[in-house]
DNA sequence: TTGTAAGCGTTATCAA
DNA sequence: TTGATAACGCTTACAA
C-alpha cells in the first residue's frame, strides 16, 4: 500500500506538503503540487479512508437501516436518498440487521436514517445521547439529535376510509400491521376516528403483519363470516394483495362482493386484477427529504420535523356495494359455497 | 468520545491491558478483565472502527455494488449474502453509483461483490491488481483476485427457446438487454445456437434495455409487423412485463396470438395476466454463494468459478400457436385493428 | 511556501 | 501477567 509517506520520499518533500497538495490546499506552489500529483498518480496512490476518518472524525458516509432488503418501497426511497447524499459529498450505504447497528456508534458512518421497526428506540436514543445524528422514518422520537420525517398516515387512512364510505360501505374490515409498527398504529387510530364519527359504519379489526400472508389469513377470516357486501382497508398494499390472491380462489369477487383498498401504492398494486385502490406518496421525495434533514443536523443547522403528504389512487378494487346484485351472493351454488 | 486510554486511566492499568481485556486475550487475569469490562461498560465505551481498521488493515465489512436500488431481484439475493456474511463475522453494506466505488480501494471494505454492469471491468481489474478481492456476478473476468459466480444463462436461454419450439413456434422474436450486458450477450448467444440448429425456426432480434420501457417498445415494433402467431422471448422478465402491458392495450392476446416467455422469474411475473412463463433460479443461493466465495478468497483459500443453475417455470403466457384459430386474427374488426 | 511534529484510537511487539 | 512504546496513514497547528 502506497501512502503519502512514500510519495513524500519520492518527491523529496515532507508528508505535510504532500497532504496539502493532495487536498488542494493553496499553500503549495502549483509547481510542487503538480509534481506531487503526478507522482501520486504514477504510484497509484489511493488515500486510506480509515486514517482519514480517524483523524477528521468523520467518514462522509451516511447509513440507512432497513428491516430487510426486499420490499417494493425501497427502490425509489433509496435513490432519493442517494441523490441528495451525493450532491452533498456524502456516500450512502444500506444496512440491515442487528449486527450492522455498530456502524453508527463505532463512527463508521456520520449519521443514520432508520426505517426498521426492529431497531429499538431505546438503542437509538442511546446513540443520540452519545451525540450521533439520526433521522427516523418509522416512529416518533423527541431528541435534539433525532429528526423525524414521517408519512402523513392520518391523512392517508382518513382518505381511504372516506373513500370507502363515500362508495356506500357500512361494513369495513381493517387489517392492521404487526404489533410494533408505528405506521400501523397511526393508521388505525385515524380509522377509528373516522369510523366513530360515522354512526352507521361498522368496522371490524383484524390483526395482520404487513406481509402477504397476513392478508391471506385476513381473507380466510372474512370468508368465514361473509354474508353481505363489505369493504376491506388493508393498512398496506402487501397485505391487500395477499388478500386479493386468497379471495381470487373463492367465489367472492374483489370490486364486486368485496371492495379492497391498500396503502403505499407499490408497483405490484397496478398489476393486481382488479387494479388496487391505494394511498400513494412520493417515495423518492421521502428519501430525499430524510437525507436532507440528516445532513442538516450533522451540519448543526436547525431543523423541524417533516411530513410526507399522501394522495388517494383510485382502482377498480373499490366500486361500492351498490354495484352488487342483491341476489348475487346467494346465487352462488351451495356446493361451491363451502368456503364461507 | 471515550477511548481505551480513558478506561486505562480510570482502571489504573495500561492501555495495552485494556486492549487485551477488551479483545478477550487470555494474557490478563480474569479479575482485571472483569474490572476493565465493568469500567468500559460504565463509561459507555465503544471501539472506534476507523482506528481498528487502520491498525488491523481490515474492516470486516463486505460491500455489494448494484446498478440501482430498485429491481425485484435484489431482495433475496442480498439476504442470501447477508446471512453468509454474518455467520462469518462480516457485515454487509449495499452501495450504488460511481461515487461509492472508492470504498474498495480506500479499504473501507475488505472485498466487493459486483452486480453492476456500469462498473467498468478495467476499473475492477485495476483494483484486483492492487490486491483487492472481488466476486463478479455479471461478467467474465480472469484474475487471481477475482472470482465469478454466474448464472447459467446458456442453459436458461436454451430451455426457454426449446420450450417455445416444443409448443410449435416457428417465428420467435427475441428482445435483448442493453449493449453492455453480459447476461444479455450470453443469453442471446444461446438463442442463436438453438435457432440455427432448428432449420425451420425464424428468429428476429429486437434491441431492448432490460427495463419495462424496452418491452413496451418491442411490443410496438411487433404490432407493426404482426401477421401470424408468434412467440417472444424477452431476455428478462421486466421487459416481458412491459411487453405484455403494451400488448394488453392492443387486439393481440398474450398466450393466444402471441406467446411470451421471460427470464428471472421475478415476483411480479406471477401476477401478470396471463401468468408469465420464465426462467427461474435461486436468488438467495446466488447471493449466498457469492458471499462465500468472496470470504474464501479473502482468507486466501483457493476457489473455482461457480455457476447457478436454472429451471423453467411454465405459465399461461405460452400455449403454442396451434391454440389460435386460423381465422381468429383476421376476425379482428378492421377499425380496431389500426394498431398493427 | 515548506517542514516538523503531535495526535486521532487502536493493536501488537518487546521488556519488565 | 502487565506496561511502554512504536506503528497504522492521515491532518493540521506551528515553526522555519
Query: Measured on Cα atoms, how large is the radius of gyration of chain A?
Result: 27 Å
State the strand order across the main sheet of chain A: 2-1-3-4-5-11
What is the tally of beta strands of chain A?
A: 12
Helix content of chain A: 25-40%
Mean pLDDT of chain A: 92
Shape of chain A: elongated
Oligomerization state = homodimer
Largest sheet of chain A: 6 strands, parallel
> Which range does the strand content of chain A fall in?
15-25%
What pair of chains forms the biggest interface?
A: A-B, 47 and 47 residues
SSE string of chain A: HHHHEHEEHEEHEHEHEHEEHEE
Helix tally of chain A?
11
Coarse structural class of chain A: alpha/beta
Low-confidence stretches of chain A: 324-340
First CA to last CA of chain A: what distance?
71 Å
What does this molecule look like?
- The structure is a homodimer of 340-residue chains.
- Chain A has helices spanning 4-11, 15-22, 30-42, 49-56, 74-87, 121-129, 153-166, 182-197, 212-225, 237-248, 283-298, and strands at 61-66, 91-96, 111-115, 133-136, 146-151, 171-175, 202-206, 230-234, 258-261, 278-280, 306-308, 311-313.
- The radius of gyration of chain A is 27 Å and the shape is elongated.
- Chain A has 11 helices and 12 strands.
- With 340 residues, the first copy, chain A, is an alpha/beta fold.
- Helix content of chain A is 39%, strand content 16%.
- In chain A, helix 7 (153-166) packs across helix 8 (182-197).
- Chains A and B meet through helix 4, helix 5 and strand 2 of A and helix 4, helix 5 and strand 2 of B.
- Chain A binds a DNA duplex (16 and 16 nucleotides) through helix 2 and helix 4.
Amino acid at each position: 500500500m502506497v501512502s503519502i509517506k512514500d510519495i513524500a520520499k519520492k518527491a523529496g518533500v515532507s508528508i505535510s506538503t504532500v497532504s496539502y497538495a493532495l487536498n488542494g490546499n493553496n499553500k503549495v506552489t502549483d509547481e510542487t503540487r503538480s509534481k506531487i500529483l503526478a507522482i501520486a498518480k504514477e504510484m497509484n496512490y489511493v488515500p486510506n479512508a480509515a486514517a482519514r476518518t480517524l483523524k477528521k472524525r468523520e467518514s462522509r458516509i451516511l447509513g440507512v437501516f432497513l428491516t430487510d432488503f426486499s420490499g417494493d418501497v425501497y427502490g425509489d426511497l433509496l435513490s432519493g436518498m442517494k441523490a441528495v447524499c451525493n450532491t452533498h459529498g456524502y456516500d450512502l450505504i444500506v444496512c440491515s440487521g442487528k449486527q450492522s447497528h455498530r456502524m453508527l456508534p463505532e463512527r463508521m458512518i456520520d449519521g443514520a436514517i432508520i426505517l426498521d421497526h426492529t431497531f429499538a428506540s431505546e438503542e437509538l436514543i442511546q446513540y443520540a445521547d452519545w451525540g450521533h445524528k439520526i433521522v427516523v422514518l418509522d416512529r416518533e422520537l423527541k431528541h435534539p439529535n433525532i429528526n423525524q420525517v414521517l408519512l402523513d398516515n392520518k391523512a392517508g387512512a382518513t382518505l381511504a376510509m372516506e373513500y370507502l364510505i363515500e362508495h356506500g360501505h357500512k361494513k369495513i374490515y381493517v387489517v392492521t400491521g404487526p404489533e410494533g409498527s408505528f405506521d400501523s398504529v397511526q393508521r388505525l387510530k385515524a380509522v377509528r376516528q373516522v369510523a366513530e364519527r360515522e354512526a352507521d359504519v361498522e368496522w371490524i379489526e383484524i390483526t395482520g403483519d404487513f406481509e402477504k400472508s397476513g392478508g391471506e389469513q385476513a381473507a380466510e377470516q372474512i370468508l368465514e363470516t361473509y354474508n353481505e357486501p363489505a369493504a376491506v382497508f388493508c393498512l398496506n398494499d402487501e397485505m391487500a394483495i395477499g388478500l386479493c390472491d386468497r379471495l381470487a380462489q373463492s367465489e367472492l369477487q374483489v370490486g364486486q362482493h368485496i371492495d379492497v383498498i391498500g396503502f403505499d401504492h407499490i408497483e405490484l398494486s397496478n398489476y393486481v386484477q382488479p387494479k388496487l385502490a391505494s394511498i400513494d406518496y412520493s417515495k423518492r421525495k421521502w428519501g430525499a427529504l430524510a437525507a436532507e434533514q440528516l445532513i442538516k443536523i450533522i451540519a448543526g443547522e436547525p431543523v423541524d420535523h417533516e411530513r410526507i403528504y399522501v394522495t388517494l389512487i383510485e382502482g377498480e378494487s373499490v366500486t361500492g356495494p351498490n354495484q352488487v346484485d342483491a341476489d348475487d351472493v346467494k346465487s352462488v351454488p351451495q356446493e361451491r359455497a363451502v368456503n364461507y
